[in-house]
Amino acid sequence: MSKVRIYTLAKELGVDNHKMLEILDGLGVAYKSVSSTIEEDTVELIKQIVAEEGASVTGGEVAETPAAAPDPAAVAPAAEQREKPAPVPVVEPAPSQMPIEGQPTEAEPVPTEAAPAAPAPAAPAKEIPHRAPVVTIMGHVDHGKTSLLDYIRHTRVAAKEAGGITQHVGAFEAKTSKGKIVFIDTPGHEAFTTIRARGANVADIAIIVIAADDSLMPQTREAIAHAQAAKVPMIVAINKVDLPQADPEKVKTDLTQLNLVPEEYGGDLIVVPVSAKTGEGVEDLLEYISLTAELEDLRADPKGNFGGVIIEGKVDKQAGVLATVMVQEGTLHVGDFLVVGENYGKIKAMTDSNGGRIKEAGPSTPVQILGFSEVPSSGEKVQSAKNEHAAREVIAQRVDVRRDEEDARERRKAQRSLEDIL
Ligand code: GDP
Ligand code: MG
């Protein structure tokens, strides 16, 4: 037995990745990511810790060091701690729930020194739920972006008949053993750059597709630069490994030149060889996406204020204006009023990425919406309004702001030409 990747060991031991990193932190073992490898000795140590901790390891605190483990008090409350290791609660209590002055503030019992350290307040701390990752696929032309998306879609999207028509929605949801992954189905830079240029980072993870027979090309570098600028984690898919002339090793070496060091060369870049033609490696790719998403700890509150982004807008000859919206926060309902730029609309109908009619949609759901009168453009932010009046008010304000800016610009221009004349 030799070096083992952290997530591999986590899987083998039935411990979640966050937990595994906690154990490593406790041991003072350095790692870059969950895909870093660890030494055999450490592996043995971890196995021991996990074995000693038994049931409690899937949940609560782990002893800092194996030496501290025997304290029965630290191991005992496994039952209450069986749930996930509670991440820091993101939501502050609402002001109304704050202790009122003059009243006893010890609403929650303060743990005494004797009590085992609880991983998080035992009170039902409202926690923002996880959401599915949104993934974009970028890379040089002809390196196989469309083919890869098609392969994933055909193998992973349960075909749902909605009157026989499946509209192109610009995004789709893939179901994997690790949960849902949302792919933005507009391969190429345009989607990514136009959306990002408007200040909306719609993707959580970027897949950079590089053909194994062609290696790094200008648009590959561009794609990498975009992902880096957006601070979006990257996964490299080396595609077309089925070709006889495929040379994945060259791709890895070339990546190293860009200071992107694949894991197997000691870096932390995840590189997955795939074939969009045979499907080889696609399963691994999906697994790596889930893994990366897990570490990103993506969350959104379905009960919060709605926030979303336009993925694409178009006019359908029969239906009229159709807009694909990615729900980022909150939940959309048929009948809601939405404001995009200086336009608003009322959701008349909503379909999911399979073309099925839906009444509501929560975070990380791409939906196609009927109800706008103007075609919204990619990357525009979408918000909701309580009613038509509120929607008009938001727009009136925006129009005012825009006019003021235009006036200011005109004045500056006039000033400049005056200076030129003088
Ligand atoms: P895109 O421009 O990046 O979207 O690339 P496409 O998906 O359109 O693929 C370009 C060409 O490469 C097409 O002829 C595909 O059939 C072919 N192709 C894509 N993926 C693979 C693969 O994994 N193996 C092989 N042999 N050909 C592939
Ligand atoms: Mg394409």
Number of beta strands? 16
What fraction of the residues are assigned to beta strands by DSSP?
Answer: 15-25%
Bound molecules: guanosine-5'-diphosphate, magnesium ion
Number of helical elements = 10
Strand count, sense and barrel status of the largest sheet are: 6 strands, mixed
Span of the ends, CA to CA: 83 Å
Assign the structural class, choosing from mainly alpha, mainly beta, alpha/beta, alpha+beta, or little secondary structure: alpha+beta
Helix content: 25-40%
Biggest sheet strand order reads 4-5-3-6-7-8
Give an overview in words.
The protein is an alpha+beta fold and 422 residues long. It is 31% helix and 21% strand. The protein is built from 10 helices and 16 strands. The strands form 4 sheets. A 6-stranded mixed beta sheet has the order 4-5-3-6-7-8, sandwiched between helices. A 6-stranded antiparallel β-barrel has the order 9-10-15-13-12-16. A hairpin with a 2-residue loop joins strand 12 (337-340) and strand 13. The longest helix has 34 residues, at 388-421. The protein is globular and about 70 Å long. Magnesium ion is lined by residues 145-146, 187. The site of guanosine-5'-diphosphate has 16 residues, from helix 5.
